[in-house]
Amino acid sequence: MKETNDWNANNYNKHADFVSILAAPVVKLLNPKKDEKILDLGCGDGTLAIDMEKVGAKIVAVDLSEDMVKKTNEKGIEAYVMSATKLIFQNEFDAVFSNAVLHWVKEPEIAIEKIYNSLKKDGRFIAEFGGYENIKHLIDAMQIVFDMHPEYGEFDNPWYFPTQEEYKQLLQNCGFEVTYIEIIPRPTKIDDISNWLNIFANGIVSHLTSEQQNNFNNEVREILKPIIYSQKDGWVVDYVRLRLRAEKRRLEIENRI
């Protein structure tokens, strides 16, 4: 997993603000409290960190995007460029919170261990991210377009969408007690599929020429239009979320036995 990305915070806020807007249930599950120290893992532009600080919690935020971290710092939040698999914290936080991030982490065991180490004993891990069969129609369409164009190379799927059983087992293997985990289908309205592709699938086609990238977007759009677009609702993406709460229960020495 690369240690930075080139997402533009303004572009993300314009076309993908639904990511923060639809996060209310997972923030409610976190239930941040006054004087708690919370790690916001994948903070984006800091919108949710600001909300959590309003209750008096102390937020430390990390993100892979330098531009996102800059925006978060400008809002007065302590933020750093850091990946989920490179967290440096030890027994520091009352809670780790992550929204719409961990499906980008294809080394989940490492990320979970780093999150576990970041928490104080009895600290809680609250997260929501893409679950099993998330954006299946989009992935299928992208695969079809790559199959149509051998000159594009192999389709490299950048996402990890686990079942709840799979992820629960990974959490338990690390020493977490999983108190809640659920797969939640959540069809999500977006402004336009081309904007979605430009933001979230840019890495998939970054090796292609500008003309090839435009052709890719247009062909994916044509495949998807009869499937996820209607005059009534516009573009509705087949999102599926995995939402969870887990607690650090074991002592460090117990984990090594």
Explain the overall architecture.
- With 257 residues, this protein is an alpha/beta fold.
- It has a domain at 9-135 and 159-189 and 238-250: Rossmann fold, CATH 3.40.50.
- 39% of the residues lie in helices and 24% in strands.
- The protein contains eleven helices and ten strands.
- The strands form two sheets. A seven-stranded mixed β-sheet has the order 3-2-1-4-5-10-6.
- The longest helix has 19 residues, at 210-228.
- It is globular.
- Mean pLDDT is 90; it is low at 1-5, 11-20 and 253-257.
Relevant terms:
257 residues, alpha/beta, Rossmann fold, 3-stranded antiparallel β-sheet, 11 helices, 10 strands, disordered N terminus
CATH class of the domain at 9-135 and 159-189 and 238-250: Alpha Beta
Q: How many strands appear in the DSSP assignment? A: 10
What radius of gyration results from the CA coordinates? Answer: 19 Å
Widest β-sheet, arrangement of strands: 3-2-1-4-5-10-6
Q: Which outline best applies? A: globular
Overall pLDDT: 90
Instruction: Say what the CATH topology of the domain at 9-135 and 159-189 and 238-250 is.
Output: Rossmann fold
Counting DSSP H or I runs of 4 or more residues, the number of helices is: 11
Strand content: 15-25%
CATH architecture of the domain at 9-135 and 159-189 and 238-250: 3-Layer(aba) Sandwich
Cα(first) to Cα(last) distance is 30 Å
User: In terms of structural class, how would the helical and strand content be classed?
Assistant: alpha/beta
